[in-house]
Protein 1
Amino acid sequence: MDARDLRRLMGTVGTARGLRSVRTAWRRRCLDAAGLPRQGAERARVPGAALGAEPAPGGGVVRFARSSLRVRVAAGGAVFCGWDGAGPEPSYALGGPVPEADERAVLEPDKDGGWRVVSERVLVVVGRHGSVEVRTPGGVLLRRDLPPRWWEPVDAPADVEATGPGPSSRWTQRSEVLPDARFFGLGGRAAGPRLRDGTYRLWNTDPGGAFEPGDDPLYITMPVQLVVADAGTHLAFHDNSWDGRVTLREGEEGAGSGHDRPGRCELRMDGGPLRSWVFVGTPARVLHGWAALTGAAALPPAWALGHHHARWGFGSEAEVRRVVAGYVERGLPLSALHLDIDHYRGHRVFTVDRERFPDLPGLAAELRELGVRLVSIVDPAVKAEPGLAVYDSGAEAGAFVRDGRGRAVRGEVWPGESVFPDFTDPAVRAWWGGLYAERLAQGFAGFWHDMNEPVSFTAFGEPTLPRSARHALEGRGGDHREAHNVYGLAMARAGFEGLRALRPGERPFLFSRSGWAGMQRYGGTWSGDVATGWPGLRASLALVLGLGLCGVPYSGPDIGGFTGSPSPELYLRWFQLGAYLPLFRTHAAHFAGRREPWEFGAETLEHAGAALRERERLLPYFVTLSHLARRTGAPYVRPVWWRSPEDRVLRDCEDAFLLGDSLLVAPVLEQGTDRRAVRLPRGRWYDTATGRAHEGPGQVLLDAPLSRIPVLARAGSVVPVAGAGGRLGLGVWGPAAGRTGGGGLISGGG
């Protein structure tokens, strides 16, 4: 029992839900004891010596004594490696057809009995014992995968014809990168965005309360590493959704030749295929290739790029009207208001509490007249209650996850004892997607998926479904060990495709707490339950940057934190950061402090209002960035090294970011700060508040009064902005902005 288990167990004592969670935990343990294969004596295996190779389009298959490796270079330069017949499909990550092979890539013998695949954009070298090196066309090494190791039962055949890792074999892949390399990615990590030495788990997890930078794992884990070094950038993706752990250790450069220590990565997986993709190039090229493989990001409707206000605890229609009226009366822009589980009848999904919300369609229409959309939470758990329409229709359709005996798996969630749709079944996704018709009829314009790791409250053990629970997995069949990490992704697909069918003329707006590689196809995400405090503020930025480098461009935090009552200063600094992030949303628990800007005093209201109006002015720029993200894979929010990955000082900068290519935002992340150092990339940068020019690369000290955070514009930038009367204007920084050659801004009709 770890610390999380102990906290959960203590929190359940003396409550009815707590007693049910004890029963759920015990039932889960019994199901897994009966339904999972017993682990006996095992032996470790390695591929052995290379025996030969067979050419194929884009590369070929290299055969070893106890394994085989398929190497395939795609036309765009992406490298696929699959051991023992593992191919690119089936895969939940891929957003379309497998990229065509590079017909010009050639498989040829290499020295010492190995092989290599030569192509225009990348060189792949396969050693005679199974190592795989990815090099630039000029031969510079970027990544070296050592021969993999897997474990199999001791009674498995040991002759030379024996295959490598089976579908449930544990395996390990060790890799080396350049000594100066820095690691990023692995999904949503509270510490970062640069990933320090340590072990990171690949298992989507509700932390069971508010999280801080030291908590790991969180809601979205992905086996996606972005590695940045002087010699080049590469992205490595191990296409495997099983539970795993990644151990990272940065390298060191010695004083003399031959004394460098490479950076190291060790990936340990509990099962699943041993297959990977590697993309090489600039950060922009790498993310473009990653988006081409996993799918273009969903384009949010323009209103979703404005300010959202949410709370777990809007008790009635009257309170919703009061909050919206507060924004209107104070002239504060508001695009959306979110309703949490408390608007449901007894927390039952796809229902409405008619006593507190007697006319939701009328309320939605009333708010729409004010330019405010309603957004609904949607949880996957369905209360196991005969007579409840959603439960009855799902039971009739056989839609719920089952155990090894064919019985629906039950867990404890907000509505009580619940069952869980199997979103890995296409028929179940179609059924679930049709249920959004009820939400649309209630007047909702957008949706946020919650609790979809999935969560089942347990007093001890993992707060999720039994690992032995059975899933369709697109007809292949399997259990929760493989389905867990893609559950939220498949739910997002069900909702997105359902909404697109129900309202073909509208862009679906959906964001999800959990997901996996490729989730950007269906929408975005948010931080989850980040703790109120200055560490939580810093974690908010780390999450957005890290997710963007994994291909998820639309995300943002709970401004103010989810659980506590922020001070006016903390709230304001969080609000100012949020104004420059893709998803700009305040949110809090019902037991936490309010999040309306006027609740923090006149000075905070004034400065928060200025941030809101600046976000409103920049909406055309955010719309532009959303289209660029869809077309190129470039995130809205980018690390400051985006265009200068060879700048080692910038690679270690984690307290500022680029918004698109034009703006550099330096949020205040520490209490009592009114000036802060800002590290500039190369080029000339203009302080948008003072017009003063600064030359990079280098560090400058800028004022950061409570009224604003430092924002700089790249010289020559042209930024679309909302001008007077809603007309489109242009912000221009540099000599073109004025006859004197200083920095300036032109804003007008266009």
Protein 2
Amino acid sequence: MKRHSVRNNIIKMLIVFMCAITIVFGWLFYREKQDETRRIKDDEYGQYIVELNEVKQLYDSGSTDADEKLDAVMNELREQKLDTGKSGLRNILIIYIVVLCVVIVLFLYIYVCVLRPFDELEDYASHLAAGDMDTKLKYRRVNMFGSFTWAFDHMRTEIVHARRREQEAIENNKTVIATLSHDIKTPIASIRGYAEALVMNMDATQERRERYASVIMKKCDEVTSITNDMFIHSLHDLDRLVVKSDEVEIKPLLEQILSDIGLGMDIVVNGDITEAVLEHSDSGRVVQVIENILSNAAKYARDTEISIVTECISPEKLPRNVHVSGADMVYRLSIKDHGTGIPDKDMPFIYEKFYRGENSGDEPGAGLGLFIVHYLMDRMGGDVELVNHADGLEAVLYFAARKVC
């Protein structure tokens, strides 16, 4: 509406200027005719009087040339007046047309190069105010506000990028909270299991009672640690989740994990647990990874046997799709259940956050377990591989390690 108002005002101003110019040139035309008439009377009046006297003398003398002379004088006078009038009118019309063209061109230039860019900026600012960040402002080099127009559109681009970064930060923040919330479930499940064992008087001996109490206290400490992570990182990116780079003796740690979480699970260790020292690892995060895998196996392959196999292998024996950084030796930890496995069509997406495959059924969950496992293994320089077998699903964890001699 405002743009049309400006255009209408420009047209009105142009019409006023054209009318004023027309009036001025009409007055000039009138004055020019008056001046021509006066010049004819003043400059040529005497000459024509002399010629007319000559004609009168010829009439008086009875000369036959009198009529020809009179016609010649009258034609000369008529042609002089017509030529003078036409010449003055032509010059005035030419000047009038030139001035009108200059005025029209000047008004068009002012509108195109000055007023229209301001109209576009005004409309563009209205779009930005309404939250429309997708509309681009065209940059024209021909107008005098080209650089300002570019700067205005660059501001829009920066706002879009800032909003995108803000949205990514919000999503990462949600992921951190969801990840840490998910990790609370496993120790709480253990606490509940051992608490139920105490209620059911399964602690027949003092030694067993002390072990149950010790596990409950340890799991409470894990919950405290995770909630501290949630508090610290609730407003930060996922990359700021602390993962230490230490050496971890895997055998005692794995034995402790199986001892703590094994209640209510049918876990079988095939052979002895291979001794090794994991490199670039965080013992707390290793516990999270293994407990997540075991928790998934117990949830989706309920009431089936879970088998564990450990071994040290050389990096050359790694599958093609597995990468372990900076490792002279790789520790391979296999956890296999005897459930239905993961559908092949879901396999490409299993490490995406919040993704849940068809095998999840009505089981509660947020689709974060494998995402957490994959993320933490990557942060520790290791990798994870899921393999479907005819008799169940195998989750294999690969850690950079050195074998204990």
Protein 3
Amino acid sequence: MNRKTLVLPAVIGLLAPVLAACGGSDSGSGGGDAIAVGTTDRFTATKDAPAPLDPAYAYDVGTWNVLRQTVQTLMIQPKGDGDPVPEAAQSCGFSDSGNERYVCTLRDGLKFANGEAITAADVKYSIDRARALKADSGVFALLSTIDTVETKGDREVIFHLKTADATFPYKLSTPVAGIVNPDDYAKNKLRDGFDVDGSGPYTMKADVKNDELVDAVFTKNPNYKGSLTVNNDKVELRSYSDADDMGTALEKGDIDLITRTMSPQQIKKFSNESGGDVDLVEMAGLEIRYLAFNTNAPTVKSRAVRQAMAQLINRSELVSRVYGTQAQPLFSLVPATITGHSNAFFNKYGDPSVTKAKSLLTQADITTPVKLTLHYTTDHYGSGTKEEFEDLQKQLNDSGLFDVNIQGAPWTTFRPAEQKGKYDVYGMGWFPDFPDADNYLAPFLDKDNFLGSPYDNGEIRNTLIPDSRREADRIAAAGSLTEIQDIVADDVPVLPLWQGNQYVAARDDVTGTAYALNSSSTLQLWELGRGVSG
């Protein structure tokens, strides 16, 4: 029988820590075929991005989901919600009242998958390497509050921070802080291709065709020592060119589970079907979608143009037409379920209004209709993206104030062009590095932001972000976080559109699907197992 399982959302930041299951890799289910998982994520090595799986470079949800299986971090986000807990570390914590000195002690007997011992020097090497390489993906910015890394003996690592950072434990749970072997990862160069080595719960063997990873086999790492219980011996991750092919493979039984990105139509189908061998799991998600602006581009350099777009776009209609109940309108970069969220854009602009938008443009002496091209990626955020941009185009053009074209491109073309400032307005998605409001603000607004945005607000960068990071109690940071969101709503360097739920569809003999993804869309393959078909 087909079942739809709901994992109810919780308010992030108000939860008590949930500890990950303790134990090594000895408790996995023995024997059986590999659990096959489908994804539409594409993993391609190009001239612009020759090292897609190097932890010092990777910075998208797909590549991170590969790295989280293979490269171990000092801390890890628990399978439910809550504060990060030790993983490669035995313990971690701030050793001062100002949140500027963070100390981790490694687990005793920690090893890389090849059996070599891991020492504090390896951790320092890994962190310092990512910081020094400063890859153009911008991922190194997650480590920007580190001043120096010190070691004490073979097991103690001490992080001296430039300024207080209460979110630092979360940052140590991200792949950029993954522990790598100096023998495999050169100090001054990214590791090209698709080889990955670490001390995580799995080792990985990649099947590569035409510079693209099409299949990855994850095999339980016998030398893994951490906080996770690995419930299987082998998982195969297969990359599909589109959601329809992936869905067909699931229904035929060629694969056991699919996650991102199912089409809105597939989610609706699996949700409504009764009978059959596929179950749908729906859970709260923290994914957001937004428009980003090159604020130096002549077409959108005027704040009035960006404000007029914010005044016109009807998020409720957009979500209803394209995504239905799978998404909710979003009026801030910070999702509604994250502590510190405010409806800043609704507070400023209220309901969509052509009259108000026209007044904004008139007062700024902007000639209408304003000609723009909205750019989107055709293959990175799911099949609904094109329809979403068609709806945005229609809304803006129907106002008579804009003359909008839309243009799609594959991610391998889209992302480098966006980073080089070739697009004036473009659509992006964000899956959080960790579930805290800081991670929905600093990556877009701070120095070395991952968009490469020229927008620079001194109050945000120099005062409000640092002030918010001083507060270990994230509720106490709400004042600074709200001010940031209000400034963003006024200046509109980005325009939030919606936040979405996340889904897993699986054959009904697969267990652990409720924890296959955590709130940050981390793929937790170690949770999967096989049970009795029902």
Protein 4
Amino acid sequence: MGLVEREAVMSELRAALSDSAKGCGKVAVIRGGIASGKTALLRAFEEHAVAAGATLLRASGAPSEQSLRFGVIEQFLSGATAPPEATESLSHLAGLTTPQVGGEAPSSAQSGTRAAHDLCVGLLELSRQGPLVITVDDHQFADSASLQVLTYLQHRIGTARVMLLLSQGTEAPSELVAEALRQPYARQFTLSPLSPEGVGQLLAQRLDSLVADQQAPGSYAVTGGNPLLTHALIDDSLAPDQEAAAGAAVEPVAGQAFTRAVLAILRRGGPQLLRTARAVAVLGEFAAPALLARFLDVRPSVVGGALETLELAGLTTDAQFRYHGTRTAVLDELTPEERSALNRRAAELLHHDGVAPSDVVGYLLAAGEADEPWAVRVLHAAADQALAHAEQALAGGKVAEAVQYLEFASRSCGDEHKRAMLTARLAWVQWTISPAAATRHHGPLQTALEKELLSGREVMRLVRSLAWHGRPKEAVRALECLDALPEGDGSRDPAERRLTRQWLARWYPQIFAQVERHAAMAEPMSSPGPVRRPHTAVLPRGTAPAPAVDGPEQVLQRARVRETPLASVIFALHELLAAERFERAMYWCNELLQKAEGQHAAAWRGVLLDTRAAVSLRLGDLADAERDASSALTALSARSWGVAIGSPLSHAIHAATMRGHFDRAEALLHQMIPQSMMDTRYGLQYRTARGHFHLATDRPHAALEDFEAVGDLVVKWKLDHPMTLPWRGDLAQALVRVGQTDRARELIKDQLRMIGPDSTRMRGISLGILASVSDLKQRLPLLGEVVDLLQAGGDRYQLAQAFVELGQVWQILGKLDRAQLIRRRALQLAKSCHAEQLSHQLLATREPLNSEPATSQWEDAEGMAVLSEAERRVAALAALGRTNREIGRKLHITVSTVEQHLTRVYRKLNIKRRADLPVGLPADIADIA
């Protein structure tokens, strides 16, 4: 491989050799940064000199051999191309028959000077036999005796056939060089780093030309034009495990060869250069020359020289490493003890210079210890600052930093009370990111609680966390400690205390019955009683909330991620669900989800996705429900979900079952769950979902067992209200399947009495179950009321089921046209809510009639725009299978008026009979009807 961007220097050296061969001796000095190509240039010139017939004496200086007297002269003689008798004579003059090691001086100053003089004369005698070339690489490390010989030689070289070629780094010139450069026969050449074009040429010597062109800019940015580093990058690219990737890469590949080259450069530069490089690596962006000098406790001039050497070597620019991999290589070579000491030193200097705590704390964390009071104060301040940034939504990375700072501060703090406070704060912040990670603080916090080191709010957070992770007895003990706290504790917020008790009473009703009785002021939402349907209008998804909101919406409107207890958000959303305000619940789920995702609050995100799945189930949006429940399960690990995993798991099982995805539902049922979950309300949800799976897969007795267990626990735990746990309806469905219709009838009648008249969806579902155990005459009017209620309630899946039942009744009564019309409506609804199994059943049981219903441009109901409002109302009810008398009664018009409206509808829509009415009516038309 040829030299790159060194041809001009090589040409000058060849001319100097030619002149020296004619008796005009020359001295040439090659100066350059570490690994700048000095040695490669020397070797290339040596090959040329030998080829030209010159005698070559070569040597290399090394710090480890500076104490070896005439060490460089010995290298000359051991590899010389001179005649043996000449080298033997020179060896005798230097006294190298038994080399003196360890820096021993000659017997007297006179004998040392005489030996150097005689060796110089011997070298001049050798040049009379032919041109003589002497090269010393890194001559600054040559021993003093050899340098004395070379000094004598350069004084006498003017008329000799000798060329002396020396190389050195960027340090100040030696006395030998300084004297030589004052003479006209001496010349110095400085090797600059390769240019970007030069780096490209070097790459092209070993890589494909296209790859070389692509990687040249990146390689120059990494190496600064240092040939050794550039060759190391090439070696890494050509390594067997990297070659394929490197061939397609635009950026260079830096690996082990590059790391070795970096360390080799630093070691060549000596101890001070290595210390400076380590200081630059540790201080990072703060590595200014003045701070480096204080950090290393050396003069600024020393640091300046080292920084210049690092920059000429292509490692740094403006006291910063060019490439992050270079910094990593330097830091990785440090022992843990060395790294800790350096980071501690950096933290101390930066703190005393007034650098912000957020910038200092990283060094303390890397040091792994912070014993001094100033260090603990820095950690506290940095944690506060990181938390403040996190609360301003400056990304989850800030929250992760806050967790790290708080963790280290709590571990390093010597004050027991402050340490408990920091640990509690850490657990609270960490819980929103990963509830499982917060569990490791339970033990220390419980110990702190026993010592009365926690505030009331911190205790309540601990209680809720213990309950979440299935440790109710420990939560009870913590709550008892809370009651024993001094009354003067300003953090004992009555609202949050009440919330905590409600949380426990709701999810562990049996265990916390005593707690609920003890706190008479609590109003547990676990026994809500009959829920009145609010009079506020239901808004479509995405509509902004009305200015005047009632209780639960006030909570949701004020909710702030990582400030508001998540329990209060769950309660408020569940209250909206119990009140059948599904669109409002969906709106708030979407609003809060956006905030939670912006702040990377995984716990909030999981709970909100789960609640959104619950809303979608109640609206009959089965695909959305299954997707959100699955997303909730992946938003948190199973361990982070704790006992609450029963909720998203139940919703996922229920949605998969309703869609007919039985394999998926069964796989979910085989997922491991905490045993303690079955003693919570989540266990009731889980058993209910499992019971419906058994019912759908024709295992009614297994379903019966689950539903009866739910009923027993609900009554025992005093949670018995169908708006939250309609176990009687579930059990009635299982009883019908095993032939116990009388018992089923009594159960569903009890459920209807408990619901009251204000509910729509749950009352509609319950009436549908009652219709299934009633005789044919009662079934028809019951199903008509069911359809009305479920349309108002917005549950498309349950409405589709009601239409299936209604179609079967009409078929039994021999009204095949009407039965087909109703089934078409059921099929449309089943498809819209992705109930695949129900859709397949309807398609399989469809019976062809004498003529197929008309399909036209009106099938999508867009043509309904040509109808008047009165005609649309009549058409909507007729499409649902209502008789003219029923339509008249519902709309408070005469049968004759109904017939007139239908006649005009048939004419405008160009159809001939009721069965041809479009079934794809917009939902608002059905609601108006």
